UniProtKB/TrEMBL annotation:
One of its GO terms (cellular component) is spliceosomal complex. Belongs to the snRNP Sm proteins family. GO terms for molecular function: RNA binding. It holds the Pfam family LSM. Keywords: mRNA processing, mRNA splicing, Nucleus, Ribonucleoprotein, RNA-binding, Spliceosome. This is U6 snRNA-associated Sm-like protein LSm4. It comes from Leptotrombidium deliense. The gene is LSM4. It comes from the Eukaryota. One of its GO terms (biological process) is mRNA splicing, via spliceosome. Residues 2-75 form the Sm domain. The keyword Ribonucleoprotein applies.
Length: 92
């Protein structure tokens, strides 16, 4: 399972993005590109020390600033199902 495949499957699902500077962004994934740049909507941004919260309609996060992503388990299950279907379609 490739990370970009996982991200593309996660479109329209909620996710948490933590940046290298410690800030976190909780929102719904709109899109991502080949460089893992991410477009989120309905975002809540939390400061690195956790005492400031900002609501943002949408934001764009550069992929090189991302430390990690947290996505729902249901998205991982969807990717596994799709991957299994592709394996079954391959000629033996």
């Amino acid at each position: 399972m490739l990370p970009l495949t996982l991200l593309r499957t996660a479109q329209n699902h909620p996710m948490l993005v933590e940046l290298k500077n410690g800030e976190t962004f909780n929102g719904h994934l709109v899109s991502c590109d080949n460089w893992m740049n991410i477009h989120l909507r309905e975002v809540i941004c939390t400061s690195r020390d956790g005492d400031k919260f900002v609501r943002i309609n949408e934001c764009y996060i550069r992929g090189s600033t991302i430390k990690y992503l947290r996505i729902p388990d249901e998205v991982i299950d969807l990717v596994k199902e799709e991957h299994g279907k592709k394996d079954n379609k391959r000629p033996q």
